[in-house]
Amino acid sequence: MILALLLAVAATEPPKHASFHVKNTFTIKVPKGAQRVRVWFAVPQEDAQSLLRNFAVVADAPVGYETDSSGNRVGYIDLRGSAATSIAVREEFDLVRTEIRNSVDPAATRPLTDWERASLARYLQPSTHVVLTPGIKSLSEKIVGGEKNPVLAARKIYDWTLQNVDYWVKDPDHLKASPVGSSEYCLTSKTGNCTDFHSLFASLSMAAGLPTRIVYGSLLKPTLNGVEVDGSYHCWIQFYAPRLGWLPLDVSLANIYGKPFPVTDKNRKLVELTTATGYKGLDPSKIDYYFGNLDERRVVWSSGRDLVMQPPQDEGPVNALTKAYVEVDGKQSADWTREFTYRELPQ
Known about the structure:
By secondary structure, the protein is an alpha+beta fold. The protein has helices at 2-12, 114-119, 134-144, 150-164, 183-189, 194-207, 251-258, 268-274, 285-289; strands at residues 17-29, 36-42, 50-59, 64-67, 73-80, 86-98, 166-167, 191-192, 212-219, 234-241, 245-249, 298-303, 324-328, 331-333, 336-345.
């Protein structure tokens, strides 16, 4: 009943819009004696829901723009033989973001053909942390039960993930996220962050022959509007259904809103900062909403896993580009910081 009502609402209500001025600042420390520092940093991606204006970058070194192996536009700095002790990069832009609304009708699609799967083969391949083990394949078969309709199959995996995994912020004393976004960790521990959730969803979906891709961005939370702290990152999934195209979902946020849990002094702030629109208690309608729809308070940084940069990095594929990737003299460096802040603009 709720799904039918949401489908009707999605078909009649116009999508919401929100506007923001965004600052994304990186500070990279340069070790004494370093001969070469290379920095690849995330820049906002423009798509059908994201209108970018007034994009500008100020940096302590020349900045170029390249495209990585997943087609993301990436900022690039190559600093050689410098006496500098740090490199600062600040990008600013205005963003108008539109809510994604879809009527995800299973009758409007059909099973994928062999030709479609072949053409979308890159979205059916595992990566370092999104794996296709015998256990995951067996579980996927059990969940999907032979269903070939991509919307119905995706919904079965979405519902299973929602019910069997809990976002770590609900109980930070006992739950935690993996540091890399791992489908195996999420399956074993039954917890994690957004990347763990969606890595597991991707593994189960690919095992069922359902093409998926992960999108990394940040939530533009009302709680942090105008606040000078790092707004971190968030990720979500797109799956492919013939005649409907790429459809988004966010099972990690559905898990926050759609399953009851006690709000305590220890988790209250974490839960609030995890959501896009603010947490006001249990809201089961978000379960159907976040299957096919996305709120308008997001910016997109990149998509894909195991990224190869351009020019290529020396240390092998990058797990994901949520913020930046740095190499000093050919070795990955974690000696950098990032601050992502924003303020909402009037419509």
